[in-house]
Amino acid sequence: PKKKEQMPPSPHHIQGVFGWNMKQRRLERGLTQEQLAEKTGTSIDTIKRYESGNYDGVRLDMAQIGRASCR
User: Fold this and answer.
1) Which of 15, 19, 24, 34 has the fewest Cβ atoms surrounding its Cβ within 10 A?
2) Structural contact between residues 25 and 31, judged by C-beta atoms closer than 8 angstroms
3) Amino acid 18: pLDDT
4) Alpha helices of the chain — where are they, by DSSP H?
């Protein structure tokens, strides 16, 4: 069976949009959640919360993620 393509969340839910974009960038770079967590110095749980759009109260340097995702 063909894998169902994920659709981005509503643009009115900025956390979901950020998380979706972050996941897409990570996948484009061929990184696992574990590898991205290691590159950014965070936990896998933090990466999972960001990608799911469920990161209220979690603080992470966005530039740090960007740099790690682009390498």
Assistant:
1) 34
2) no
3) 83
4) 14-28, 33-40, 44-52, 62-70
